[in-house]
Amino acid sequence: MNKKRIIYISWTRADYGLMRNFLLNLNKIPEIQLDIIATWMHLSYNFWYTLQNIINDWLNVYRIYSNIDWWDLLAMTQSVWFWIIWIAQKIDELKPDLVIIEWDRYEALAWAIAASHQNIPIVHQWGWDIWSSIDNKIRFAITALSDYHFVWNPESYNRLIKMWYKNVFNFWEPGLDDIYENNFFKNENKILNKYNLKWKKYIIAIFHPNTYEFNQLKDILKWYIGSLKNLAKKYKILVIWSNSDAWWILINNELSNIKNIKFILSIEREEFLTLMKNCYFMIWNSSSAIVELPSFKKFAVNIWTRQEWRLRANNIIDVWYDYNDILKWIEIVEKKIKNWEEKNIVNPYYNGWFTKQAIKKILEILKIK
């Protein structure tokens, strides 16, 4: 049988976790040869070598290592050149029929350039969402290079249609399939006991770099860390390791020095969603509180401006980079929780099963009956 070859390119535990259910089901189709190209954070001991997550799922995986020091904006820029060279070589070697790209990171842009220049059709998941960082420009560029657009909300869908893009499909957010899967939280008690959190009020804190805000970063961290120290007086605080954008080392070093918090260096997706499901609220600037947290009907205090302009549910409270403002809005969130206002939260990123819809469309693209 001549199988159709699909490449999915993954650089971090986060993107793989979101797409995992889809990839495992895609791999079951006899007419398809699915290859995973694992790069960057999967192969970095700074980020706990998460390649093992893919290996444990028995997927066919290729590795592309990097020796660039991912510390600042120069390194991010140089990395695009690095990935274009090595991904182009791997694409030429494997000769796929289709490449699937998730998200909007600088590595993903390099992969879109490499595939499109070799006339390989690209499926892009997450096109034309809008928020405040370099990710916007990268996402728009990947959209322009892609042939099929799997978006995850009606706003992004309508933007692409108005710009005369073709092959646009709103299949919603892939990572939410896990939350609505009947048996996904079967280890809930075990996980809460592992982190010593059962019957406790705790807050999850996540802070990623915003490439537009380096000149303000030290002040922002001072205010953010000050608010966490204040919250630690009455809650257990879980701080999760930042992503690999510029200045991640500075952020993680500062956060890891806070006393009376639990600093989580790496966490499996099942554990992460379980902790989100049972947290009191989140204080953050990452995508998870916008995308997944509404499904658990939980509130989040969003530290501007990284998630500015994004479609969000009514669980998000936006605050400015100011210590007193952060504490004021945290008090408002606490009152909302006491008044049971979370029962009105509805997730705008979910209206059906991504996996079933996306696989059906991919089979059509590859003309597999």
Give a quick account of the main beta sheet: strands, pairing sense, barrel closure. 7 strands, parallel
Question: How do the strands line up in the largest sheet?
Answer: 3-2-1-4-5-6-7
CATH topology of the largest domain: Rossmann fold
What's the overall average pLDDT, rounded? 89
**Percent helix:** 40-55%
Roughly how many Å apart are the termini?
14 Å
- What sequence of helices (H) and strands (E) makes up the elements? EHEHEHEHEHEHEHHEHEHEHEHEEHH
Number of helices: 14
- For CATH, the homologous superfamily of the largest domain is named as Glycogen Phosphorylase B
Top keywords for this entry?
369 residues; alpha/beta; Rossmann fold; seven-stranded parallel β-sheet; six-stranded parallel β-sheet; 14 helices; 13 strands; 41% helix; globular
Question: What can you tell me about this protein's structure?
Answer:
The chain has 369 residues and is α/β, with parallel strands linked by helices. It has two domains: 4-180 and 350-365, Rossmann fold (3-Layer(aba) Sandwich); 188-344, Rossmann fold. Helix content is 41%, strand content 17%. The chain has 14 helices and 13 strands. It has helices spanning 13-27, 51-56, 73-94, 106-116, 135-145, 154-162, 176-179, 188-194, 217-231, 248-256, 269-278, 288-291, 323-338, 354-365, and strands spanning 4-10, 32-39, 60-64, 98-102, 122-125, 148-151, 168-170, 202-206, 236-240, 262-264, 281-284, 300-303, 316-319. The protein has a seven-stranded parallel sheet with strand order 3-2-1-4-5-6-7, with helices on both faces. Strand 1 (4-10), helix 1 (13-27) and strand 2 (32-39) form a beta-alpha-beta unit. Helix 1 (13-27) crosses helix 14, helix 3 (73-94) packs parallel to helix 4 (106-116) and helix 4 runs parallel beside helix 5. The longest helix has 22 residues, at 73-94.
